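Supplementary Text 2. Reproducibility record for the structural model of the 161-residue chain.

All settings were left at their defaults, and a single model was retained for analysis rather than an ensemble. We include the record here because the model underlies the residue-level annotations in Supplementary Table 4.
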Amino acid sequence: MKVFTYSILALVFSLSACSSQKKLVENPPFELGQATCQTWQGGRAETGSGINLEIPLLSDNMDEMKMQQAYFRGMIADVSLVSSEGKWMAKASFKNESSEKMDMVMHADSKQEVGNQPPTKKEKFPFELGTDQCVVSYMDGEKIKYYKIEGIKEQKPLIYK
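Retained model, structure tokens:
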């Protein structure tokens, strides 16, 4: 009888666990135009490289919209809303991580190693997306909601001298 009771309790607790997958909404409170992305490469190694994502917003009342982040090709970036000539654009800039390793001091005296940076732990990307898909998060009242954008057009890369 105890085994049965413990089994039922374990089942109830496992089913009540929080979902780590974020829920996507079907109809956001704004209209979107054709999203585009453009890769860029700096002229020097230290300049780096990355991707710029632009999403035209067709809704008029974007003053109150609070877009949070964009999730694209395994990277996460903050979204900024920009108004130009009465049209709104959501922009996110994703910078590729530098392959350069930071200098590290290795010394018998541990006090000499104080300036060393610990390795950063990369969190798991929360969505499974194709190369032409992106998810944007936005505030709807007190809740953060997520909307998936598909069919992102890729423009010619920018290569700086």
